[in-house]
Amino acid sequence: MQTKTRQNLITQIRGYSVNGTTAMSDAVFTNPVTAYASSERLQLEKQTLFRDYPILMAMSCQLANAGDYLTEDFSGTPLLLVRQKNGDLSGFINACAHRGAPVAQGAGTRGSGFTCPYHAWSYELDGRLRNIPGEEGFTCINRDDYGLKPIPVIEKYGMVWAIPNPSINPAPVDIDTYLGDLAAEYASYEFAGYHHFATQILEPKINWKMAVDGFLESYHLSVLHPKTVSPLYFTNRSTADGFNLNHRMVAVRKSFDKVDEDAELEKDFLLHTNILYTLFPNTMFVYQRDHLEIWRMFPDGDDPSRCKMVLSMYTPEAVTGDSAQRHWENNLRLALDTVEAEDLMLGEKIQRGYQSGAQEFVTYGRNEPALAHFHASLNKALSLEGSIEVKIG
Ligand code: FES
Ligand SMILES: [Fe+2]
Known about the structure:
Layout: H1 3-19, E1 29-32, H2 34-37, H3 39-52, E2 55-59, E3 68-72, E4 79-83, E5 89-93, E6 107-109, E7 114-115, E8 122-123, E9 129-131, E10 150-151, E11 153-156, E12 159-162, H4 175-179, H5 182-187, E13 195-202, H6 208-213, H7 221-224, E14 233-243, E15 246-253, H8 262-267, E16 273-279, E17 283-287, E18 292-299, E19 307-315, H9 322-356, E20 361-364, H10 369-381
Antiparallel strand pairs: 1-20, 2-12, 3-4, 3-6, 4-5, 5-10, 7-8, 8-9, 11-12, 13-19, 14-15, 15-16, 16-17, 17-18, 18-19
Bound molecules: FE2/S2 (inorganic) cluster and fe (ii) ion.
């Protein structure tokens, strides 16, 4: 993060501390409960957000070398990302041009390309069709039409995005336009050198947006997390800044107020805060003191009350040795346990209430500006009402 940004945030947080307040939006924001409970709304989100927008897929370290690949179906489209011999990243629909079987499974390294498990058609790393066994059965086809279907992949700042729609190719905007001023902020980090520690998946019975919402206000900390998060973080005290459809919220550790010198806070900003970026549409990119937690939320099938939360943890240094391994395993377990036992336990009850039809609207207070920004951004992307600019002061 740039020095000037850190200084501005420190000034803001000092002000909130003196006045006992938090970042506020200009107005209360109401959102129909159908946003979380309707099948039609979910279909629109799946067709638009999870097809046409850049979805954060991985960090560059997960595809470091030529031939490294990963596959993923969470967006609803089977995807394959591959590091090419020239260092570029390519993305494809993971479906064989013959009769559609996925040509790659899981993740790994496959320097020699991919062979389909159904009839063994094989493909080069760059998606070109290499070989058709029993080729005499396919004499009249043009092999150039039978490569893997490419999709746009964007790699920058040690991060990898894909747009899961082969008819949008190349990407319509560059990622910096999309990130706005956050681009410079990400450029100031050194995430390209990070290491993937582990990925875990939760499958709560809640709408995928409620899983995002859980990160977007510090108002609930002392009530829902009295023993876990609340001893460490201030309740109802955080900053909020929108960057196009994306957002940055800084949650404040209680240690922040114990530091008198701004210069010290500037130097140790991450020790006293937790930076939560909402990377539109579905990612919470959480920069903690000494690691990254990336939570990606996806609808699970066609049921608006089910989702998948995919948590990946990354560390600045490779984790080697038993005690470091145990340390990070505990860290990951703690993050999952708190979210599962506290946020999701309540979330599933809330979702049942939403499905009941009892309540027409939910209300995001002025002190919950990140929620208003997220849902206003969704409305904008989906061309729904309520896509007004959320002013945060
Ligand atoms: S579906 Fe891939 S070889 Fe037949
Ligand atoms: Fe929470």
